[in-house]
Amino acid sequence: MDIRLLDNITLKTALQATPHKACSCAVGGCEAWESVPDERFPKTQMTHIGTLRDPDIYEPTFEQHHPDGTNYDSPDAPISAKHFPYNRCDAFSCKTCQRVLLTYTEYGGYYVDPRVRWAQIEMMKSIKP
Ligand SMILES: [Zn+2]
Q1: Ligand 1 is a single-atom ion; what residues have CB below 5 A from it?
Q2: Domain-by-domain residue ranges, the chain?
């Protein structure tokens, strides 16, 4: 089965359907990007709802989207499907709290670092399709 490709419109739609509920799952708050080792990511309570990585793009851009002076790890950094690191993320929905979580793996010289951010609809307000 193909994994559903999400863009700004479909991701926004997915986020609109989710209530704002505090999560008590092992992932934690993740309002900004956080390193979450695989063993802390509760896969069994997650539904893979899609990917933001366009299979037709060989190397997604590393350009980031910060029109209001935010940084990569700002809790209020906008979520733009076409920009780094969102353009290489998978989206999961937590069965316990209904939050949508974005995940990708940061590759360093000697490490791999899985990261997670809670996708909140507020972070997509300024995003145009
Ligand atoms: Zn949860």
Answers
A1: 23, 25, 94, 96-97
A2: 8-68+75-124
Q: Rounded CA gap, 114 and 8, in Å? A: 22
Confidence class of residue 120 from pLDDT cuts 50, 70 and 90?
Answer: very high
24 CA from centroid of ligand 1 (Å): 6
Whole-angstrom distance, CA of residue 43 vs CA of residue 14: 19
Q: How far is the CA of 99 from the centre of ligand 1 (A)?
A: 6
Q: Is the dihedral of CA 5, 89, 76, 78 positive or negative?
A: negative
What is the pTM assigned to this prediction? 0.92
CA of 76 to the centre of ligand 1 (A): 20
Contact 64, 72 (CB under 8 A): yes
